[in-house]
Write a structure and sequence with these properties.
11 helices; alpha/beta; 8-stranded mixed beta sheet
Amino acid sequence: MQNNSLVDALSHSQLDHYVKLRRYLHQHPEIGFEEELTSSVVARELSDIGLTPHTGIAKTGVVATITGTMGQSDRTVALRADLDALAITEENDLPYVSKHPGRMHGCGHDGHTVMLLAAARLLVQQQERFSGTVVLIFQPGEEGHAGARAMLQDGLLKRFPFDEIYSLHNWPGLNVNHVALNPGRMMAGIDRFTIKIRGKGGHGGHQYQTNDPILPMVQLVQSLQTIVSKNVSAFREAVVSLNLVKSGHEGALSVVPDSAVIQGMTKWFDEDISRLLHNRIADQIEGTAKSFDVVINEKYEKLYPPTINHRKQAELALKVAQRVVGSNRTYWGVGPSMASEDFAFFLQERPGAFFRLGIGENAPPLHSPRYDFNDEILSTGARLHALIAIDALKEGTAAQ
C-alpha cells in the first residue's frame, strides 16, 4: 500500500482501538431508527477527539463537523456512514458474534461506522493542512428504512450544508483493499410490493366447499418470475425478486387457509422500467384474481432511487484510491450492482460518489447470516475518507 505525506495510516494503538470498537458494535447490532447504543458510542468517540456531536437527527442520526485551519474557505464536503443492522440471526462462530438473536450486522455497517470515526481522527490530526469544513454524517436506517431521506427531511442540509458528498461500501467478491467504482450507475433503484390473496378457508377433506388461496399464490409466484424475461430487453437492467411466500399454519392438518401473502421487490435503473414492472405485476394480479375467483389486493411502495455517481466526484475518488491502494488495486468502469442503497437520496441533492472497498474475493455475501466484516480494511477506509475530503476541499470539484 502506498504512503501519502498528507494523511498517515492509523498508529498500531489507534487501529487496535478501532478493531475492538468495531467488534463491540458487531456484538450489539441495532435495527433502523433503534440505534440508541450505536449513536451514543459514536457521540462519545467524536467527543473524545475534540468534536461536538449533534445527536437526534432523524431520531438516531449523529452529525459532527471539522473545520480546517490552513486558511479561510466556505467549501464544505460530507462523508457518510450507515449505522444500522439487519433483522437476521447470525450463524458465525466468532468471539464477537451478535449477542441478540434476530439482529446482525450482516452488511458491515459496524465497519462503515468505525471507518468514518477513524477518518475523523485523521482529519482532526491534519486540521492545519486543509481549509474548509468536513461534515461527518452517521446515518440511521439504511436497511429499508430510507434513513438518508429521513435525515434530509429533518433539515440536515439546512443545519449542515455541504457542497458534495462521498460514501463507501465494503464489498465481498472484491479482493481485500481493492477499490472499484464507475462514473455513473452504481446501485439499482428499488420498489417493494405486498400481495394479499383472500380466498375461502375450510376443511381439507372438503375442498369443494373452499376456495384455496394457495393455488393462486403459486400461480402468481410463477408468473411474476416471467415478467422480466418477457417484457424487458436483455440490454436493460431489471429484477423481480420474491422474499416471502406465506399461507396456512404449521401443524394445522386438514385446514385450508383463507389467505396468502407474497412479498417482493423490483430493481431497476430507469423510471420507465419501474413503471413497466409495476404495471405488469398489476396485470398478473388482475388475471389471477379472475381465474381463481379470489380477491387480491396489492400494496406497491417506492423505496430508493438508483445510486448514480457524478463523474467529477467519481474521478476524484478514483485518483485518491490510486494513491492510497495503488493503481493496480483500483478498478474504473465496474459494472453496476442490482442491490440498492439509500445514499441515492443524497446524490439526488448534491454531487458525490459511492465506491466499493473489497473485503475478500471469497468472503460470504452481504446479507448472509455467515457474513463477517474484514478488519483489514479499517485503516484503508479511514484514509480513503479523509483524503477524499481533503482533496475535494482543495479542488472545489462541485463548482467545476
